[in-house]
Amino acid sequence: MEKKLYLLCLTIITNILLLYSYSLNVEGRHHISKKTKTKSITSHAPSSPVEGSVKEPSPSQPLPLSPPPASSPSNVVPSDPSYGGSPDLSPDDCVFDVTEYGAVGDGSTDDTDAFIAAWKAACQVESAVLLAPADRTFMITSTIFSGPCKPGLEFRVNGVLMTPEGPDCWPKEDSNKQWLVFYRLDNMTFTGTGTIEGNGEQWWELPCKPHRGPNGSTLPGPCDSPTMIRFFMSSNLVVRGLRIQNSPMFHMKFDGCEGVLIDELSISSPKLSPNTDGIHIENTKSVGIYNSVIANGDDCISIGPSSSNIHIEGVTCGPSHGISIGSLGVHHSQACVSNITVRNAMIRDSDNGVRIKTWQGGSGSVTGLSFDTIQMENVRNCIIIDQYYCLTKGCRNETSAVYVRDISYRNIKGTYDVRSAPIHFACSDTIACTNITMSEVELLPHEGELVDDPFCWNAYGIQQTLTIPPIDCLQDGMPQEIGEAVEYICST
């Protein structure tokens, strides 16, 4: 009997020890983040390799281009930056809180080293979360967050993340071309309910674009203002839920990437802030931009060369310079852009609506563009193709051009600013724009009377329905010399 009691007690004690050991293991998985002491870490963004030319990555599985599932209808455009965003932290998250690595978050202390230390630790753990917590303002200097990292890494900003206060406070040893760079990453998410603040006011006072000088001359601008957020040579990226504002130059740039999902962003800067494009895409494939509000001083969304398979839906732009393909072909370069769709969008109080802009002397092609169901409110140049794009008065008329073809405008309605004709097709003298389709295009003056008829030059296409105002200048069929333009078509 005593032997049986002894064995029973031994079994109970063993089970208790096993349960205690298991609970320690579970707790370790839930709370792997530890505060570490770090030595001085270089936080400057070097001029190489990130500022050089790119080759596109080859991701294993690019992200789909269909709108992501959401708790609300996909056609609802958020007006509140807290809409959507990142869910609350789960007990199962492997969280690397930057405050545990020394970040102060008082808005004036340089927290760069703490972010780099937290990044290096999180980079080594699968499905890790680097957290900038709410109710803190973190100031960091120009920094490259490099990979490769373990898959599933999430950079979550729930507080405020901001740049130094203007060019005078920018560290002299840092790159003044870019602020935050995410480099060579795969399967990474940038999200949160917080704000990314660019402190761009002092940068906007610097001349960036060519501008007027004494006695009617034109002076160059240095364009030495940093892009706020740059994703470079990365794949399978998600950017969701953040408020991004007051960038010194471009708010967000994707360069040499493949597989990008952008959803529920709020991007804003003043109407007159120069070169503050909302989202710029170049050398990038397979991009979806959804359910976002962008108000800025330049292009709402701009798409540069070597970009394809881009879907934009549920986006509100304005004030801005509209949604632009280009500029393309500068300095006699080749530009290849294809398969771009913009649908269910709103453009208001903007200098342009949907625009294609190319420089003379370029080559390549823009093909397979669809603009479908777009509402215009008080927009100049609602629909524009400009193959004579030039920033000065000294641009020459050249024979080569980017070949623009297969462009569809469907269900484009609303009002235009009468200072410009609502439809403007200015195509190259030698390489005509071809296969332009117009259907259910109805544009009326926002105020005042109808302006002159739409403008066309060397533009060919069809009107499937009556266009308002009528676009009688669009020529039927194809130009006789179109065969000479075959060399300009990019290979797919």
End-to-end CA span: 85 Å
Percent strand = 35-45%
Structural class: mainly beta
Count of helical regions: 3
The poorly predicted ranges are: 1-10, 13-56, 70-88
Rounded average pLDDT: 83
Family: Belongs to the glycosyl hydrolase 28 family.
GO molecular function: polygalacturonase activity
Pfam family, one: Glyco_hydro_28
Main location: secreted
How is this structure best described in words?
By secondary structure, this protein is mostly beta strands. Helix content is 9%, strand content 38%. It has 3 helices and 34 strands. The protein has a 21-stranded parallel beta sheet that branches. Strands 5-8-13-16-19-22-25-27-29-31-33 form an 11-stranded parallel beta sheet. Strand 11 (211-212) and strand 12 (218-219) form a beta hairpin. The radius of gyration is 26 Å and the shape is elongated. The relative contact order is 0.08. Mean pLDDT is 83; it is low at 1-10, 13-56 and 70-88. Residues 33-87 are annotated as: Disordered. The active site is at residue 321.
